Amino acid sequence: MILFIKKIIKNFLKLICIPFVIIILILNLFIKLKFIRFNPSRIGHLSFDSEFYLRKKKYDNLILFASYSNKNICNVFMDKMIKRQFIFSNLFNLLHAANKLISDNNSIFVETAHHTNPDYTFAPSRNLINGPTQLKFTDNESQEGINFLNKVNPKKKKINYHYC
User: Fold this and answer.
1) Lowest mean pLDDT among 20-29, 78-87, 145-154
2) How many Cα neighbours within 13 Å face the side chain of 61?
3) Whole-angstrom Cα distance, residue 99 to residue 101?
4) Is there a contact between 93 and 10 (Cβ–Cβ < 8 Å)?
C-alpha cells in the first residue's frame, strides 16, 4: 500500500514538473542550459563526466544543473568537489522524468551513463576538451594534502607534489 501511494505521489510530481520542462525547453532557445544526471556509483564515470561537463561549460558558455542517478556515492570527497562546481539538487531528477513523458529531447536533459549521450560525439572516444583541470582542490585542501604527505614521508623521499 505504501509503495502504491509513493508511486502516485511520484507520478503527480512528474506531472507538476511538465510546465517547468516546457519553460526550460523554451528558455534553452535563448540561454544554453543542461540538466545532467551523473552516475555517482562509479569513480570513472563520476570523475570523467563531471570534468567533461565543466570543460564543456567553459567552452560553450553553458549553465549547468546537476543531480545523481542513484544514492551510491563512490567517493565522498569528489562528491563535495562536484557540488561546489554545479548548481546541484536531486530534485532535478523530477525534471528528467517529466521530460521523458513529453519529449525524447536528450540534449538538454542528459543521462551521462548512457551510450546515447549526444555530447560525447563532441569528444571522440570520450576524450576531454583541451584545457586546464576544472575540478580543483581549494588552497586549504591542497595544504592538508601536502601536510599529510609530509607526515607519512618525514624523510622527504621522492614524492611528486605536482598533483597536490
Assistant:
1) 145-154
2) 3
3) 5
4) no
Strands 33-38 and 63-68: parallel
Domain hosting residue 67, numbered range: 14-133
Q: Is residue 152 part of a domain?
A: no
C-alpha cell at 162: 605536482
Grid coordinates representing 107 are: 540534449
**Helix H or strand E encompassing 111:** strand 109-111
**Which residues have C-beta within 8 Å of that of residue 146, sequence separation ≥ 6?**
161, 164
What's the average model confidence in pLDDT over 37-60?
88
- pLDDT (mean) for 101-123: 72
Categorise residue 19: left if φ over 0, alpha if ψ from -120 to 50, beta otherwise. alpha
Minimal CA–CA distance to 61: which of 53, 70, 49?
Answer: 53
Number of domains composing the chain: 1
The span from the CA of 110 to the CA of 106, in Å, is 5
Q: Please check the confidence at residue 25 and state whether its pLDDT lies above 80.
A: yes
